[in-house]
Amino acid sequence: MMGICGVSLPLFIVIYVIAQGLPAINWDFFTSEPAGGLSGDGGISSVIITTLWLVGATLVVTVPLGIGAAIYLAEYARDTWRTEIVRRGVELLAGIPSIVFGLFGLAIFVQVFDLGLSIISGSLTLACLLLPFMIRSTEEAMRSVPRSHREASLALGATRWQMVRSVVLPSALPGIITGIILCAGGAVAESACLYVVMGGSAEMPGTPLDGGRSLAVHIFYLINETNALDKAMATGAVLMVFVLVLNIATRFLSWQYRARVGGKK
Amino acid sequence: MHISRHFVDRVVKHIMLALATLSLLILVLIALYIFREAWPAFKELGLSVFDDKWYPSREAYGIMTMIVGTIVSTTLALFFAVPLSIGCALFLAEVAPPQVAQVARPAVELLVGIPSVVYGMVGVVFLSPIIADISGQGSGSSVLAAGIVLAIMILPTVTSISEDGLRAVPRAYKDASLALGATRWQTIWHVLLPAARSSIVAAVILGLGRAIGETMAMMMVIGNSPQFPHSIFDSARTLTGNIAAEIAHATGLHADVLWACGALLFIMVLGLNTLGILAYRGKIGLPWSRGKSAKGRVS
Fold it and tell me: Does A2 contact B214 at a Cβ distance shorter than 8 Å?
Protein backbone atom coordinates (compact mmCIF):
# COMPACT_ATOMS: atom_id res chain seq x y z
CA MET A 1 0.00 0.00 0.00
CA MET A 2 2.68 2.48 1.09
CA GLY A 3 4.79 1.37 -1.79
CA ILE A 4 2.11 2.27 -4.31
CA CYS A 5 1.62 5.60 -2.59
CA GLY A 6 5.35 6.37 -2.77
CA VAL A 7 5.56 5.31 -6.38
CA SER A 8 2.66 7.50 -7.47
CA LEU A 9 4.09 10.63 -5.79
CA PRO A 10 6.37 11.72 -8.66
CA LEU A 11 3.51 11.31 -11.08
CA PHE A 12 1.32 13.53 -8.92
CA ILE A 13 3.97 16.26 -8.64
CA VAL A 14 4.73 16.30 -12.36
CA ILE A 15 1.07 16.41 -13.39
CA TYR A 16 0.14 18.96 -10.70
CA VAL A 17 2.88 21.40 -11.71
CA ILE A 18 2.28 21.11 -15.44
CA ALA A 19 -1.51 21.37 -15.08
CA GLN A 20 -1.27 24.41 -12.80
CA GLY A 21 1.34 26.06 -14.99
CA LEU A 22 -0.25 25.64 -18.40
CA PRO A 23 -2.88 28.44 -18.17
CA ALA A 24 -0.20 31.14 -17.78
CA ILE A 25 1.93 29.86 -20.64
CA ASN A 26 1.64 31.63 -23.99
CA TRP A 27 3.97 33.05 -26.62
CA ASP A 28 4.42 36.31 -24.67
CA PHE A 29 5.56 34.35 -21.65
CA PHE A 30 8.57 33.06 -23.59
CA THR A 31 9.46 36.28 -25.36
CA SER A 32 9.18 38.95 -22.67
CA GLU A 33 11.56 39.68 -19.84
CA PRO A 34 10.41 39.36 -16.23
CA ALA A 35 9.73 42.68 -14.53
CA GLY A 36 11.87 41.70 -11.55
CA GLY A 37 11.76 43.18 -8.06
CA LEU A 38 8.52 42.72 -6.18
CA SER A 39 6.44 42.54 -9.35
CA GLY A 40 5.65 39.14 -10.77
CA ASP A 41 4.79 40.49 -14.22
CA GLY A 42 6.42 39.56 -17.48
CA GLY A 43 7.76 36.35 -18.95
CA ILE A 44 10.94 34.36 -18.74
CA SER A 45 12.97 35.18 -21.87
CA SER A 46 16.07 36.45 -20.06
CA VAL A 47 15.78 33.61 -17.55
CA ILE A 48 15.86 30.98 -20.29
CA ILE A 49 18.89 32.64 -21.93
CA THR A 50 20.69 32.77 -18.57
CA THR A 51 19.91 29.10 -17.96
CA LEU A 52 21.31 28.12 -21.37
CA TRP A 53 24.50 30.16 -20.80
CA LEU A 54 24.84 28.57 -17.41
CA VAL A 55 24.42 24.98 -18.59
CA GLY A 56 26.78 25.50 -21.53
CA ALA A 57 29.55 27.13 -19.52
CA THR A 58 29.23 24.53 -16.75
CA LEU A 59 29.57 21.64 -19.17
CA VAL A 60 32.60 23.24 -20.86
CA VAL A 61 34.42 23.07 -17.51
CA THR A 62 33.02 19.86 -16.00
CA VAL A 63 33.12 17.52 -18.96
CA PRO A 64 36.84 17.60 -19.88
CA LEU A 65 37.86 17.75 -16.23
CA GLY A 66 35.56 14.91 -15.21
CA ILE A 67 36.43 12.65 -18.13
CA GLY A 68 40.15 13.26 -17.64
CA ALA A 69 40.01 12.46 -13.95
CA ALA A 70 37.91 9.37 -14.65
CA ILE A 71 40.32 8.13 -17.32
CA TYR A 72 43.15 8.42 -14.83
CA LEU A 73 41.21 6.62 -12.09
CA ALA A 74 39.90 3.85 -14.30
CA GLU A 75 42.83 3.23 -16.65
CA TYR A 76 46.13 4.57 -15.35
CA ALA A 77 45.97 4.52 -11.58
CA ARG A 78 46.99 1.33 -9.90
CA ASP A 79 44.82 0.43 -6.94
CA THR A 80 46.95 1.97 -4.25
CA TRP A 81 45.96 3.83 -1.13
CA ARG A 82 46.46 7.09 -3.02
CA THR A 83 43.89 6.23 -5.67
CA GLU A 84 41.63 5.06 -2.89
CA ILE A 85 41.87 8.47 -1.21
CA VAL A 86 41.05 10.28 -4.46
CA ARG A 87 38.06 8.01 -5.02
CA ARG A 88 36.75 8.39 -1.46
CA GLY A 89 37.32 12.13 -1.65
CA VAL A 90 35.26 12.36 -4.81
CA GLU A 91 32.54 10.25 -3.20
CA LEU A 92 32.34 12.54 -0.17
CA LEU A 93 32.50 15.69 -2.29
CA ALA A 94 29.28 14.52 -3.94
CA GLY A 95 27.35 14.85 -0.68
CA ILE A 96 28.34 18.37 0.37
CA PRO A 97 25.30 20.67 0.41
CA SER A 98 24.87 23.04 -2.50
CA ILE A 99 24.74 26.07 -0.22
CA VAL A 100 28.24 25.26 1.10
CA PHE A 101 29.47 25.29 -2.51
CA GLY A 102 27.68 28.63 -2.79
CA LEU A 103 29.72 30.05 0.10
CA PHE A 104 32.88 28.68 -1.46
CA GLY A 105 32.02 30.10 -4.88
CA LEU A 106 31.24 33.47 -3.34
CA ALA A 107 34.64 33.58 -1.63
CA ILE A 108 36.78 32.12 -4.44
CA PHE A 109 35.18 32.96 -7.77
CA VAL A 110 33.27 36.13 -6.91
CA GLN A 111 35.83 37.71 -4.58
CA VAL A 112 39.31 36.18 -5.07
CA PHE A 113 39.06 35.74 -8.85
CA ASP A 114 37.03 38.96 -8.99
CA LEU A 115 34.47 37.60 -11.44
CA GLY A 116 31.65 39.36 -9.61
CA LEU A 117 28.11 38.06 -9.14
CA SER A 118 27.94 36.61 -12.63
CA ILE A 119 26.94 33.68 -14.78
CA ILE A 120 30.61 32.69 -14.99
CA SER A 121 30.90 32.51 -11.19
CA GLY A 122 27.72 30.43 -11.16
CA SER A 123 29.06 28.06 -13.81
CA LEU A 124 32.38 27.54 -12.04
CA THR A 125 30.60 26.88 -8.74
CA LEU A 126 28.25 24.44 -10.46
CA ALA A 127 31.24 22.77 -12.13
CA CYS A 128 32.78 22.06 -8.70
CA LEU A 129 29.44 20.76 -7.48
CA LEU A 130 28.80 18.47 -10.45
CA LEU A 131 32.37 17.25 -11.00
CA PRO A 132 32.05 14.22 -8.71
CA PHE A 133 28.95 13.01 -10.59
CA MET A 134 30.72 13.39 -13.94
CA ILE A 135 33.78 11.51 -12.68
CA ARG A 136 31.71 8.74 -11.18
CA SER A 137 29.46 8.10 -14.17
CA THR A 138 32.39 8.19 -16.61
CA GLU A 139 34.46 5.86 -14.46
CA GLU A 140 31.54 3.44 -14.16
CA ALA A 141 31.00 3.50 -17.92
CA MET A 142 34.69 2.79 -18.54
CA ARG A 143 34.84 0.00 -16.01
CA SER A 144 31.94 -1.76 -17.69
CA VAL A 145 34.05 -2.21 -20.85
CA PRO A 146 35.15 -5.86 -20.79
CA ARG A 147 38.74 -6.53 -19.74
CA SER A 148 39.28 -8.78 -22.75
CA HIS A 149 38.85 -5.81 -25.12
CA ARG A 150 41.62 -3.94 -23.34
CA GLU A 151 43.92 -6.94 -23.33
CA ALA A 152 43.34 -7.60 -27.01
CA SER A 153 44.28 -4.02 -27.82
CA LEU A 154 47.39 -4.06 -25.63
CA ALA A 155 48.43 -7.43 -27.04
CA LEU A 156 48.38 -5.89 -30.53
CA GLY A 157 51.06 -3.49 -29.33
CA ALA A 158 48.92 -0.43 -28.63
CA THR A 159 50.10 1.95 -25.93
CA ARG A 160 47.76 2.53 -23.03
CA TRP A 161 46.55 5.84 -24.46
CA GLN A 162 45.93 4.29 -27.89
CA MET A 163 43.92 1.60 -26.16
CA VAL A 164 41.91 4.13 -24.15
CA ARG A 165 41.25 6.34 -27.15
CA SER A 166 40.32 3.74 -29.70
CA VAL A 167 38.85 0.91 -27.61
CA VAL A 168 37.64 2.03 -24.19
CA LEU A 169 36.25 5.51 -24.93
CA PRO A 170 34.13 4.48 -27.95
CA SER A 171 32.58 1.59 -26.01
CA ALA A 172 31.98 3.75 -22.96
CA LEU A 173 30.58 6.67 -24.97
CA PRO A 174 26.86 6.11 -24.27
CA GLY A 175 27.60 5.90 -20.53
CA ILE A 176 29.69 9.07 -20.73
CA ILE A 177 26.94 10.91 -22.62
CA THR A 178 24.48 9.81 -19.96
CA GLY A 179 26.80 11.40 -17.40
CA ILE A 180 26.94 14.63 -19.40
CA ILE A 181 23.15 14.79 -19.63
CA LEU A 182 22.86 14.16 -15.90
CA CYS A 183 25.22 17.09 -15.32
CA ALA A 184 23.13 19.31 -17.58
CA GLY A 185 20.06 18.23 -15.59
CA GLY A 186 21.87 19.04 -12.35
CA ALA A 187 22.79 22.49 -13.64
CA VAL A 188 19.17 23.18 -14.62
CA ALA A 189 17.80 21.94 -11.30
CA GLU A 190 20.33 23.51 -8.94
CA SER A 191 19.33 26.65 -7.12
CA ALA A 192 20.88 27.23 -3.69
CA CYS A 193 24.46 27.92 -4.77
CA LEU A 194 23.30 30.00 -7.74
CA TYR A 195 21.07 32.12 -5.50
CA VAL A 196 24.24 33.11 -3.65
CA VAL A 197 26.74 33.65 -6.50
CA MET A 198 24.73 35.00 -9.44
CA GLY A 199 23.15 38.13 -8.03
CA GLY A 200 19.67 37.29 -9.29
CA SER A 201 19.21 40.13 -11.76
CA ALA A 202 16.11 39.68 -13.93
CA GLU A 203 17.61 41.48 -16.92
CA MET A 204 18.80 39.92 -20.14
CA PRO A 205 22.48 38.98 -19.75
CA GLY A 206 24.74 40.53 -22.40
CA THR A 207 27.84 38.49 -21.62
CA PRO A 208 28.54 35.65 -19.16
CA LEU A 209 30.11 38.27 -16.91
CA ASP A 210 26.65 39.70 -16.20
CA GLY A 211 24.55 38.44 -13.34
CA GLY A 212 21.26 36.66 -13.82
CA ARG A 213 18.87 34.04 -12.54
CA SER A 214 18.26 30.54 -13.84
CA LEU A 215 14.75 29.07 -14.17
CA ALA A 216 15.01 27.40 -10.76
CA VAL A 217 16.18 30.59 -9.03
CA HIS A 218 13.47 32.59 -10.81
CA ILE A 219 10.81 30.31 -9.31
CA PHE A 220 12.25 30.95 -5.88
CA TYR A 221 12.11 34.73 -6.36
CA LEU A 222 8.55 34.55 -7.68
CA ILE A 223 7.33 32.45 -4.74
CA ASN A 224 9.18 34.26 -1.97
CA GLU A 225 9.03 37.86 -3.14
CA THR A 226 5.90 38.19 -5.29
CA ASN A 227 2.32 36.96 -5.35
CA ALA A 228 2.62 35.64 -8.89
CA LEU A 229 1.96 32.00 -8.05
CA ASP A 230 0.59 31.39 -11.55
CA LYS A 231 3.81 32.63 -13.17
CA ALA A 232 5.84 30.53 -10.74
CA MET A 233 3.83 27.46 -11.68
CA ALA A 234 4.24 28.24 -15.36
CA THR A 235 8.02 28.60 -14.94
CA GLY A 236 7.92 25.36 -12.94
CA ALA A 237 6.13 23.63 -15.80
CA VAL A 238 8.81 24.79 -18.26
CA LEU A 239 11.51 23.62 -15.85
CA MET A 240 9.80 20.25 -15.43
CA VAL A 241 9.65 19.79 -19.19
CA PHE A 242 13.41 20.49 -19.39
CA VAL A 243 14.08 17.99 -16.62
CA LEU A 244 11.75 15.36 -18.04
CA VAL A 245 13.30 15.57 -21.50
CA LEU A 246 16.80 15.16 -20.01
CA ASN A 247 15.59 12.30 -17.82
CA ILE A 248 13.99 10.46 -20.70
CA ALA A 249 17.11 11.00 -22.83
CA THR A 250 19.33 9.37 -20.20
CA ARG A 251 16.93 6.48 -19.78
CA PHE A 252 16.79 5.92 -23.50
CA LEU A 253 20.58 6.00 -23.79
CA SER A 254 21.26 3.64 -20.91
CA TRP A 255 18.55 1.31 -22.17
CA GLN A 256 20.16 1.24 -25.62
CA TYR A 257 23.58 0.86 -24.06
CA ARG A 258 22.52 -2.09 -21.93
CA ALA A 259 20.92 -3.73 -24.96
CA ARG A 260 24.23 -3.39 -26.82
CA VAL A 261 26.48 -4.63 -24.02
CA GLY A 262 24.04 -7.44 -23.33
CA GLY A 263 24.14 -8.42 -26.99
CA LYS A 264 27.90 -8.80 -26.92
CA LYS A 265 27.93 -11.46 -24.22
CA MET B 1 58.66 15.85 -36.65
CA HIS B 2 57.78 12.43 -35.42
CA ILE B 3 56.58 12.13 -31.86
CA SER B 4 56.84 8.67 -30.36
CA ARG B 5 53.48 7.24 -29.38
CA HIS B 6 55.05 6.12 -26.10
CA PHE B 7 55.91 9.74 -25.40
CA VAL B 8 52.30 10.71 -26.09
CA ASP B 9 51.17 7.98 -23.75
CA ARG B 10 53.33 9.33 -20.93
CA VAL B 11 52.21 12.93 -21.50
CA VAL B 12 48.55 11.92 -21.50
CA LYS B 13 49.01 9.95 -18.30
CA HIS B 14 50.38 13.02 -16.57
CA ILE B 15 47.60 15.26 -17.89
CA MET B 16 44.99 12.82 -16.58
CA LEU B 17 46.78 12.61 -13.24
CA ALA B 18 46.77 16.41 -13.04
CA LEU B 19 43.01 16.49 -13.73
CA ALA B 20 42.32 13.83 -11.10
CA THR B 21 44.46 15.72 -8.57
CA LEU B 22 42.69 18.98 -9.38
CA SER B 23 39.35 17.34 -8.60
CA LEU B 24 40.59 16.18 -5.22
CA LEU B 25 42.18 19.58 -4.66
CA ILE B 26 38.75 21.23 -4.95
CA LEU B 27 37.51 19.13 -2.03
CA VAL B 28 40.55 19.99 0.08
CA LEU B 29 40.30 23.65 -0.89
CA ILE B 30 36.63 23.81 0.07
CA ALA B 31 37.32 22.22 3.45
CA LEU B 32 40.30 24.48 4.19
CA TYR B 33 38.54 27.61 3.04
CA ILE B 34 35.41 26.98 5.03
CA PHE B 35 37.26 26.43 8.26
CA ARG B 36 39.59 29.37 7.63
CA GLU B 37 36.63 31.69 7.09
CA ALA B 38 34.64 30.25 9.98
CA TRP B 39 37.51 30.41 12.46
CA PRO B 40 37.18 34.14 13.36
CA ALA B 41 33.58 33.51 14.44
CA PHE B 42 34.63 30.85 16.92
CA LYS B 43 37.65 32.89 18.08
CA GLU B 44 35.63 36.05 18.60
CA LEU B 45 32.46 34.60 20.06
CA GLY B 46 33.67 31.35 21.61
CA LEU B 47 30.85 29.10 22.66
CA SER B 48 28.37 31.96 22.59
CA VAL B 49 28.01 31.19 18.87
CA PHE B 50 25.69 28.50 20.15
CA ASP B 51 23.44 31.00 21.97
CA ASP B 52 19.81 31.17 21.00
CA LYS B 53 19.58 34.89 20.18
CA TRP B 54 19.94 35.76 16.49
CA TYR B 55 19.68 39.53 16.03
CA PRO B 56 22.43 40.48 13.55
CA SER B 57 21.39 44.16 13.67
CA ARG B 58 22.12 44.17 17.44
CA GLU B 59 25.21 42.00 17.04
CA ALA B 60 23.69 38.96 18.69
CA TYR B 61 24.91 35.99 16.70
CA GLY B 62 23.60 32.82 18.34
CA ILE B 63 22.85 30.02 15.90
CA MET B 64 21.14 27.59 18.29
CA THR B 65 17.67 28.36 16.91
CA MET B 66 18.85 27.41 13.42
CA ILE B 67 20.48 24.22 14.68
CA VAL B 68 17.18 23.32 16.34
CA GLY B 69 15.30 24.23 13.15
CA THR B 70 17.51 21.90 11.13
CA ILE B 71 17.22 19.08 13.66
CA VAL B 72 13.44 19.36 14.04
CA SER B 73 12.71 19.52 10.30
CA THR B 74 15.02 16.62 9.44
CA THR B 75 13.70 14.50 12.31
CA LEU B 76 10.15 15.07 11.10
CA ALA B 77 11.32 14.19 7.59
CA LEU B 78 12.72 10.88 8.82
CA PHE B 79 9.51 10.21 10.72
CA PHE B 80 7.58 10.36 7.43
CA ALA B 81 10.24 9.09 5.05
CA VAL B 82 11.43 5.96 6.83
CA PRO B 83 8.18 3.98 6.85
CA LEU B 84 7.24 5.25 3.40
CA SER B 85 10.61 4.38 1.85
CA ILE B 86 10.83 0.97 3.45
CA GLY B 87 7.31 0.36 2.20
CA CYS B 88 8.40 1.42 -1.28
CA ALA B 89 11.52 -0.73 -1.13
CA LEU B 90 9.53 -3.78 0.01
CA PHE B 91 7.01 -3.13 -2.72
CA LEU B 92 9.72 -2.94 -5.39
CA ALA B 93 11.83 -5.83 -4.12
CA GLU B 94 9.18 -8.27 -2.89
CA VAL B 95 5.58 -7.48 -3.65
CA ALA B 96 5.38 -5.98 -7.12
CA PRO B 97 5.52 -8.22 -10.17
CA PRO B 98 8.76 -7.62 -12.15
CA GLN B 99 6.99 -5.72 -14.94
CA VAL B 100 5.39 -3.32 -12.45
CA ALA B 101 8.68 -2.85 -10.59
CA GLN B 102 10.39 -2.07 -13.87
CA VAL B 103 8.05 0.86 -14.46
CA ALA B 104 7.85 1.95 -10.83
CA ARG B 105 11.60 2.11 -10.18
CA PRO B 106 12.35 4.85 -12.73
CA ALA B 107 9.30 6.69 -11.44
CA VAL B 108 10.76 6.79 -7.94
CA GLU B 109 14.15 7.76 -9.35
CA LEU B 110 12.49 10.63 -11.18
CA LEU B 111 11.99 12.22 -7.77
CA VAL B 112 15.78 12.77 -7.60
CA GLY B 113 15.70 14.78 -10.80
CA ILE B 114 12.86 17.12 -9.79
CA PRO B 115 14.45 20.46 -8.83
CA SER B 116 14.23 21.36 -5.18
CA VAL B 117 12.46 24.66 -5.94
CA VAL B 118 9.64 22.68 -7.55
CA TYR B 119 9.17 20.75 -4.30
CA GLY B 120 9.20 24.04 -2.46
CA MET B 121 6.66 25.52 -4.83
CA VAL B 122 4.29 22.58 -4.58
CA GLY B 123 4.76 22.77 -0.81
CA VAL B 124 3.78 26.45 -0.76
CA VAL B 125 0.86 26.18 -3.18
CA PHE B 126 -0.57 22.79 -2.26
CA LEU B 127 0.60 21.75 1.20
CA SER B 128 0.78 24.98 3.19
CA PRO B 129 -2.90 25.93 2.71
CA ILE B 130 -3.93 22.46 3.95
CA ILE B 131 -1.71 22.81 7.00
CA ALA B 132 -3.01 26.33 7.63
CA ASP B 133 -6.56 24.93 7.59
CA ILE B 134 -5.71 22.19 10.05
CA SER B 135 -3.75 24.35 12.47
CA GLY B 136 -5.93 27.42 12.07
CA GLN B 137 -2.91 29.73 12.30
CA GLY B 138 -0.83 31.74 9.85
CA SER B 139 -0.01 30.78 6.31
CA GLY B 140 0.88 27.17 6.92
CA SER B 141 4.62 27.81 6.63
CA SER B 142 5.82 25.47 9.33
CA VAL B 143 8.27 22.79 10.35
CA LEU B 144 5.55 20.27 9.53
CA ALA B 145 5.43 21.42 5.90
CA ALA B 146 9.23 21.37 5.82
CA GLY B 147 9.28 17.83 7.22
CA ILE B 148 6.81 16.52 4.66
CA VAL B 149 8.56 18.18 1.71
CA LEU B 150 11.96 16.91 2.89
CA ALA B 151 10.54 13.42 3.37
CA ILE B 152 9.47 13.29 -0.27
CA MET B 153 12.84 14.61 -1.38
CA ILE B 154 14.86 11.92 0.42
CA LEU B 155 12.39 9.15 -0.47
CA PRO B 156 14.32 7.94 -3.57
CA THR B 157 17.68 7.83 -1.75
CA VAL B 158 16.34 5.80 1.14
CA THR B 159 14.20 3.60 -1.11
CA SER B 160 16.88 2.59 -3.59
CA ILE B 161 19.54 1.76 -0.99
CA SER B 162 17.05 -0.18 1.15
CA GLU B 163 15.91 -2.05 -1.93
CA ASP B 164 19.51 -3.04 -2.73
CA GLY B 165 19.81 -4.34 0.82
CA LEU B 166 16.58 -6.33 0.60
CA ARG B 167 17.62 -7.88 -2.70
CA ALA B 168 20.99 -8.89 -1.25
CA VAL B 169 19.36 -11.09 1.38
CA PRO B 170 20.12 -14.69 0.34
CA ARG B 171 17.12 -16.42 -1.17
CA ALA B 172 17.65 -19.38 1.11
CA TYR B 173 16.68 -17.27 4.14
CA LYS B 174 13.34 -16.44 2.61
CA ASP B 175 12.70 -19.97 1.36
CA ALA B 176 13.55 -21.45 4.76
CA SER B 177 11.12 -19.11 6.47
CA LEU B 178 8.32 -19.81 3.99
CA ALA B 179 9.01 -23.57 4.24
CA LEU B 180 8.52 -23.35 8.00
CA GLY B 181 5.01 -22.16 7.30
CA ALA B 182 5.52 -18.44 7.89
CA THR B 183 3.28 -16.13 5.93
CA ARG B 184 4.80 -13.65 3.51
CA TRP B 185 4.31 -10.81 5.97
CA GLN B 186 5.92 -12.82 8.81
CA THR B 187 8.85 -13.57 6.52
CA ILE B 188 9.28 -9.90 5.67
CA TRP B 189 9.01 -8.80 9.28
CA HIS B 190 11.10 -11.49 10.98
CA VAL B 191 13.60 -12.48 8.29
CA LEU B 192 14.03 -9.99 5.47
CA LEU B 193 13.99 -6.71 7.41
CA PRO B 194 16.39 -7.91 10.14
CA ALA B 195 18.75 -9.39 7.54
CA ALA B 196 18.77 -6.16 5.52
CA ARG B 197 18.97 -4.02 8.65
CA SER B 198 22.41 -2.55 8.09
CA SER B 199 21.59 -1.46 4.54
CA ILE B 200 18.39 0.16 5.76
CA VAL B 201 20.24 1.96 8.53
CA ALA B 202 22.83 3.13 5.97
CA ALA B 203 20.00 4.29 3.70
CA VAL B 204 18.44 6.34 6.48
CA ILE B 205 21.80 7.91 7.42
CA LEU B 206 22.53 8.86 3.81
CA GLY B 207 18.99 10.24 3.46
CA LEU B 208 19.55 12.31 6.58
CA GLY B 209 22.77 13.68 5.08
CA ARG B 210 20.80 14.81 2.05
CA ALA B 211 18.00 16.32 4.13
CA ILE B 212 20.33 18.45 6.27
CA GLY B 213 21.84 20.15 3.20
CA GLU B 214 18.55 21.07 1.53
CA THR B 215 18.21 24.83 1.20
CA MET B 216 15.77 26.42 -1.22
CA ALA B 217 12.75 24.21 -0.61
CA MET B 218 13.27 24.77 3.11
CA MET B 219 13.40 28.54 2.72
CA MET B 220 10.13 28.39 0.84
CA VAL B 221 8.04 26.25 3.19
CA ILE B 222 9.47 26.67 6.69
CA GLY B 223 8.69 30.38 7.07
CA ASN B 224 12.33 31.24 7.66
CA SER B 225 11.89 33.20 10.90
CA PRO B 226 14.76 32.61 13.34
CA GLN B 227 12.78 31.33 16.33
CA PHE B 228 12.32 28.13 18.28
CA PRO B 229 9.38 26.14 16.92
CA HIS B 230 7.10 25.38 19.86
CA SER B 231 4.81 23.11 17.87
CA ILE B 232 5.01 21.44 14.48
CA PHE B 233 2.79 24.25 13.14
CA ASP B 234 5.34 26.93 14.04
CA SER B 235 7.73 28.54 11.61
CA ALA B 236 11.50 28.12 12.03
CA ARG B 237 14.76 28.57 10.11
CA THR B 238 17.40 26.03 9.12
CA LEU B 239 21.19 26.47 9.03
CA THR B 240 21.11 26.31 5.25
CA GLY B 241 18.31 28.87 5.00
CA ASN B 242 20.18 31.16 7.36
CA ILE B 243 23.23 31.23 5.08
CA ALA B 244 21.22 31.73 1.89
CA ALA B 245 19.02 34.46 3.33
CA GLU B 246 21.75 36.63 4.82
CA ILE B 247 25.11 36.04 3.11
CA ALA B 248 24.41 38.60 0.38
CA HIS B 249 24.33 41.54 2.79
CA ALA B 250 26.50 40.21 5.62
CA THR B 251 29.88 41.71 6.45
CA GLY B 252 32.50 41.26 9.15
CA LEU B 253 31.57 39.09 12.10
CA HIS B 254 28.07 38.50 10.70
CA ALA B 255 29.57 36.86 7.57
CA ASP B 256 32.02 34.89 9.72
CA VAL B 257 29.15 33.41 11.71
CA LEU B 258 27.39 32.41 8.48
CA TRP B 259 30.61 30.65 7.44
CA ALA B 260 30.52 28.93 10.82
CA CYS B 261 27.03 27.68 9.90
CA GLY B 262 28.57 26.37 6.66
CA ALA B 263 31.38 24.67 8.57
CA LEU B 264 28.86 23.05 10.88
CA LEU B 265 26.84 21.77 7.90
CA PHE B 266 30.03 20.53 6.26
CA ILE B 267 31.02 18.54 9.36
CA MET B 268 27.52 17.11 9.89
CA VAL B 269 27.05 16.04 6.28
CA LEU B 270 30.57 14.65 5.86
CA GLY B 271 30.24 12.73 9.13
CA LEU B 272 26.84 11.29 8.23
CA ASN B 273 27.92 10.34 4.71
CA THR B 274 31.10 8.65 5.91
CA LEU B 275 29.09 6.71 8.47
CA GLY B 276 26.43 5.84 5.90
CA ILE B 277 28.89 4.68 3.25
CA LEU B 278 30.81 2.54 5.76
CA ALA B 279 27.59 1.03 7.09
CA TYR B 280 26.44 0.32 3.55
CA ARG B 281 29.60 -1.58 2.71
CA GLY B 282 29.29 -3.53 5.96
CA LYS B 283 32.69 -2.21 7.04
CA ILE B 284 31.42 -1.09 10.42
CA GLY B 285 28.82 -2.81 12.52
CA LEU B 286 26.62 -0.10 13.92
CA PRO B 287 25.56 -0.89 17.46
CA TRP B 288 22.00 -1.56 16.37
CA SER B 289 22.84 -3.50 13.23
CA ARG B 290 24.63 -6.50 14.67
CA GLY B 291 27.89 -7.24 12.88
CA LYS B 292 28.19 -7.57 9.18
CA SER B 293 25.53 -6.73 6.66
CA ALA B 294 23.69 -9.20 4.49
CA LYS B 295 25.83 -7.89 1.64
CA GLY B 296 29.01 -8.87 3.45
CA ARG B 297 27.70 -12.34 4.14
CA VAL B 298 26.81 -13.00 0.54
CA SER B 299 30.17 -12.16 -0.94
Answer: no
